[in-house]
Structure formats: C-alpha cells, structure tokens
Amino acid sequence: MTSWQKILKKSITSPEELVRHLGGNSHDLARVAARYPLRINPYYLDLIKKNGKPLYRQAVPDPRELDDADGMTDPLAEERLSPVANLVHKYPDRALFLVCNKCAMYCRFCTRKRKVGTPGMRITEQTLEAGFNYLRKTPRIREVLLSGGDPLLLNDSRLEYILGRLREIPSIEVVRIGTRVPCTLPMRVTGELAAMLKKFHPLYINTHFNHPAEITPEATLACTRLADAGIPLGCQTVLLKGVNDDARTMYRLMRKLLAIRVKPYYLFQADLTRGTSHFRTRIETGVNIMRYLIGNLSGMAVPTFALDAPGGGGKIPLTPPYVNSCGKTLEFTTWQGTPCSYPNQSKN
C-alpha cells in the first residue's frame, strides 16, 4: 500500500470519529451521513483545524443538507443525457465519462452527491466497456472528460488502462481529467503518476480549489509535478456562501492559482443540487466579484463566471454588464466605471 493510500485509509468516515476531532452534534451528523456519505482524510482535517470555517463548511455534514425543498436530485439532467451508464453526452463533440465512484473527501456541495460514494454509483468492467463502445461508435465525440468521483483515486495501472483504451479510439483527440486530488489529497500526485500521464498527450487536467488556504506547499508540489509533465492545468472553483463569496478572498485565490501554474478556468454558480441550498449565493454576488477581479487581476487570472443550466442546458457565461448601447457607436463603461465609446463601423 502506497503512502497516499495509507493516508486515505485513515480518513474519518463516521460521525463519532468526526465529533472526537472537531466536535459537533453526533445525532445531527449521523442523520446527514446516513443519506450523504462522509469522508475527511487526515491531510484535509489538518487544514480544517488550521483554517476553520471556510474549509470546515466544505467538508463537515450540515443538518441543512436534509432541509432543502428547492434542490433537485439531478439538476443537470445527467441521467437523462446518459446513453449508457456513467457516460453523459450533453454537447455534440464532448462526453463526460464517470470512471471512479469515490473521492478523497466528500464535498458537501457536490453536484453528484446523490450517488458519489454510495451504492447508487456502480462502476464495473461492464459499464466501462459500454462507455468505450459508445465512444467508438460515436465519432463526433472528439473530447472526453474523465470524472466521477475522482479518477485520480484509481491506482496508476488502472488509470493507465483507461487512458490507453481511450487513445485506441481514433476520433478522440483530447482527454481531460477532472480531479480535486491536488487540493484534497495532493500526495496522491506522485512522480510516477505524472510520468504515466505524460504518455497520453494531449491531456488536460481541471482541478478544484475553492479557498486560498487550500493552496499549501503539498498542493503546490502536486501541481508542479503535473505542470512539469506538460499537462495544462485549469481550476473550476465553485462560488460558496461562507467560503469564498467575497471579492478579496477570490482575488487571493486566483492570484495563488496562477502562481502555481493553474489557470483559473471557471467560477461556477452553485448548482441546484438537493442538499446544497445553504451554499448558494445570489447571482449578483458572483457578478460583483467578477467586476472586481477583472479590474484588479491580469486576464490570465480571471475565470469565466458561469451557470450550468438546470435540465442539461449547458454552461452559460454570466458577465458583468459593460455595454450600454450598440448602434453606430458602442457606448460602454470601463472596469473603473468611466464612460467610453468606440465607433461601430467598418469602411470598405
């Protein structure tokens, strides 16, 4: 057993263990954990103890998860958009392939909390084979995103097998991996893993940091190993009430991400997932944060604020309004609030 697997094995998975480490009401915790799984590994537990509420809220079950009348079980209609089990085909040329049903930590705001880490998410040789067959028979799919759960919780040989099978399909040009491991269990990203992944370019990784306190020396090393293997890294942050819903926190996070060679990619408005309503902010909160970021950070550090439309409608950019009118002249406002214009004409 490798070191990261030993750390994972020591994870808190019961309310009783959690109370011993962080306190709380064991009865309330047990009620939530009976529906939505609990896992906090020792690495992230130490971060919670050092940094408090912003990390605590992401990891520790909250009774409000059971009191959410507005949420949807499957807000992005992934089950309806799955032609075979564990493969979501929403966009014409892209597919989401779920290859692992576990995570290094079960985030309380997870879009797939209905099934990740539960018996409701079954991944077998048969489901994987069905996914490979669908991708082979659907050549318009040129890009595949591996997700789950977290694909990097698979061991190196298993992940290598899956990547190898995908690379045997001629129509697949690009493979992406969605993983929170560089944030929640960075020691999983070993030199051996990075060397293996390097064999499958063009390969991209989107990771997931929500707070500047998550960018530790260990996380920096994990991202450095991946970047040194030539893997472009992006970050998909979620806007979360009580975690990162203020401009200065988000500013510090985006700066730190860029410093460790992770490009801020998306800032997501929280999905309408049942059990997560206490995390959702108003849209205006995100728009105002974006207005601040655009004025105070380089474009390299500015993500796209987006909403993943309920019902499988796809990602919709939400941009601060700058345009006032657009006729023969474009009338707009700069990031500083100054009125400006631009001639909207072309000469033959």
Short description:
This protein is an alpha/beta fold and about 350 residues long. About 35% of the residues lie in helices and about 15% in strands. The protein starts with a helix and ends in a 5-residue tail after the last strand.
Record keyword descriptors for this entry.
348 residues; alpha/beta; nine-stranded mixed β-sheet; three-stranded antiparallel β-sheet; 33% helix
Describe the main β-sheet briefly: 9 strands, mixed
Rg over CA atoms: 21 Å
Poorly predicted spans: none
CATH topology of the largest domain: TIM Barrel
Order of helices and strands: HHHHHEEHEHEHHEHEHEHEEEEE
Whole-Å distance between the termini? 70 Å
Oligomeric state of this protein? single chain
Strand content: 15-25%
The number of strands is: 12
User: Can you list the strand order of the major beta sheet?
Assistant: 1-2-3-4-5-6-7-8-9
> What does the average pLDDT come to?
96
Q: Which overall shape is indicated by the principal axes computed on the Cα atoms? A: globular
Number of helices: 12
As a percent range, the share of helical residues equals: 25-40%
CATH class of the largest domain: Alpha Beta
